[in-house]
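Hello,

Our lab assistant flagged a job as stuck in the queue for most of the afternoon. It eventually completed. Since we weren't sure the result was trustworthy after the delay, we are filing this so someone can double-check. Below is the sequence as submitted and the structure that was eventually returned. Let us know if re-running is recommended.
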Amino acid sequence: MYEKSFPNKRFKLTTLFLEKHISTDSNILDLGVENPFTNIMKQQGFTVENTQGEDLDIDTTSIENSDADVVTAFEIFEHLLSPFTVLQSIKADKLVASVPLKLWFSSAYRSKTDMRDRHFHEFEDWQFDWLLEKAGWKIIDRQKWTNPTKKIGIRPILRWFTPRYYIVYAERV
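-- returned structure --
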């Protein structure tokens, strides 16, 4: 079922992780604008609302005013100057978040054209864990996965073996 339902491996694994920890009875606030994964969550039976594209480094009103049971943040925190502030502003008791991991063999992602697509952080797993703990979250489960490409070269080969994505399920302490 999942093999043909998802456009890529990351969406499939993210969905399986989400379904493992979050009931479809929960209301989800997904940080970031509506996107292809928002639609996948809705197709799987989740009730999802998104933030509206505001700069969450400056304006956390939509997070603070949300009565969602769960907050999801899929590849969002690397785009924020201060993810700590956002993590502290969450009122929900459950968080599912993923980040791209820093790769030792590749420079950090940098878009020169799209201001919204800039990475201020690329985390190592322990750095993200520390950030969550300092912001008042306890990690209950975690998972990493690779992101292989079909290109030729040393880096594409390394991507078959080196985890690129890190996802956690955490609860408010």
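-- support follow-up --
The delay was a queue issue, not a problem with the job. The result is valid. The two ends are 36 Å apart (CA to CA). The first strand starts at residue 27 and ends at 30.
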